[in-house]
Write a structure and sequence with these properties.
There is one protein chain. The chain is built from 9 helices and no strands. By secondary structure, the protein is mostly helical. Helix 1 packs antiparallel against helix 5. It has 2 domains: 72 residues; 64 residues, no CATH class.
Length: 168
């Protein structure tokens, strides 16, 4: 007896992933599949804060996988290959009317062929800067920032912190 694992096609994976998303996330994935940038897709999906929502959605592994599978499925169904795109870029470079257009096409070709080294981003510096910015804000300013994210009742407590280096 041989037990075979089911083959997950793009269509089956797509259906599975889409079932795991809520309605706004589905609209976001569809907009991304049609070529929208994340912020525009979040706006089209009806999110109140498209900038923040787009960042959150792009970090969500299920949403990211749904976008990737959707785009891949669409490309397969359109029968577009990497070689097709490379050919289009080469045509664009040959038919460019300015050196700027040629350079842009050459950059896209190099990116498509993975000629660039991966870019390393130092997020620790950004996080440290953001922490310092948040620490410098007053309680009222912090409350204004958190109005959309804090749900429930709360009250401001007025207290004096204990000195750090006080003798016992």
């Amino acid at each position: 007896m041989s037990s075979q694992l089911p083959v997950l096609t793009d269509r089956k994976s797509h259906a599975f992933l889409m079932a795991a998303l809520d309605q706004k996330q589905k609209l976001y994935v569809e907009a991304r599949m049609l070529g929208s940038v994340p912020v525009v897709a979040a706006r089209m999906a009806g999110y109140k804060s498209p900038d923040e929502s787009a960042l959150e959605l792009e970090r969500d592994p299920t949403v990211r996988m749904a976008v990737e599978v959707s785009v891949r499925m669409q490309a397969r169904e359109a029968k577009v290959t990497r070689e097709d795109v490379l050919g289009w870029m080469q045509d664009a470079m040959r038919n460019a009317t300015s050196s700027t257009e040629q350079l842009n096409a050459a950059k896209e070709i190099a990116r498509l062929l993975n000629f660039y080294e991966p870019v390393r981003v130092d997020i620790n510096k950004t996080v440290t800067m953001r922490q310092e910015q948040l620490r410098s804000l007053s309680d009222e300013e912090l409350l204004k920032l958190s109005r959309d994210t804090v749900d429930g009742e709360y009250q401001l407590l007025d207290f004096q912190p204990e000195p750090v280096n006080a003798p016992p």
